[in-house]
Write the C-alpha cells for this entry.
Amino acid sequence: MRILSAKDYEQMSRKAADILSAQIILKPDSVLGLATGSSPVGTYQLLIDRYRRGELDFSRCRTVNLDEYVGLDDSSDQSYAYFMRKNLFDQINIDPANTHIPSGINPDTDGECSRYDALIRSLGGIDLQLLGIGNNGHIGFNEPDDCFAKGTHQIRLAEATIQANKRFFAKEEDVPRFAYTMGIRDIMQAGRVLMIASGARKAAIVKEAFFGPVTPRVPASILQLHKDFTLVADEAALSAL
Ligand code: F6R
C-alpha cells in the first residue's frame, strides 16, 4: 500500500491524472476501471486537457465502470452512464463501443451480473482501477456487509450512501435504492488500484479503512491486501492519521 499526500483537491487530481496518464501512455490499449462521484471529476478534467493538448490518445483504451443505479437508463441525467459521457467520454477520442457500464434497466438481475463479469473477463481483466471511497467505506457500491461480495451483483444502497448521494438529486426520494456494482473480486483482480480521497469528511473512514482491521464491515479495508494499491489523498482526508 502506497499513500501519496496532496495539498488539496487540485493537487490530488493532478497526481491521480499523472498515474492514469502514465498507464495510458505505457499501455495504449489499457483496460481502465472508472468511478463516478465528486472525487474523480478533477482528474477527468485533467485527462481531457491533456488529450486536447495532444498528450494522450484514448483511441485504443477500453473502460469498465464500477456501478450504475438500477432503474435509470443511460439517457437519464442522474445515471452514471450520463455522468461518464458528460465528464469524460464525450470530450476525448474514446470509441463509445469500448466504454462499458452495467445496464441499470436490465430486468434480468442475474443475467446482467454475469454479463458484466464475463465482459470484464473477455477484456482480459482491469489494468488500473480508479476508486473513490464512501463515508461508510464502500468501494463501488460494495456496502458494509458480513462478507466480501465477489462478482458483479445488485445491492440495496446503505442509508449512509443515500444520504451522501442525495445531493445529486432534486429530492431524497429520487435517489434509487438499488444499484449494480462490480464485486470485490473484480476490483481486487485489477492489476493496479488507485483510490482518490479528498476533504475532511473522508478523514475518519480513510483512517479506519487503511489503519484498522481488514473487514467486510469496511469494504475498502481489503485494499490493504492488494499487491499494487495507491491512495492519493489530500491533507484534509489524511488529517485523522
Ligand atoms: C462511484 C462509486 C462510489 C464513489 C463513492 C465516493 O462510481 O463507486 O464508490 O466513489 O461514493 O463518492 P464521492 O467521490 O462523490 O465522494
The pocket of fructose -6-phosphate is lined by residues 35-39, 66-67, 132-134, 138-141 (CB under 6 Å).
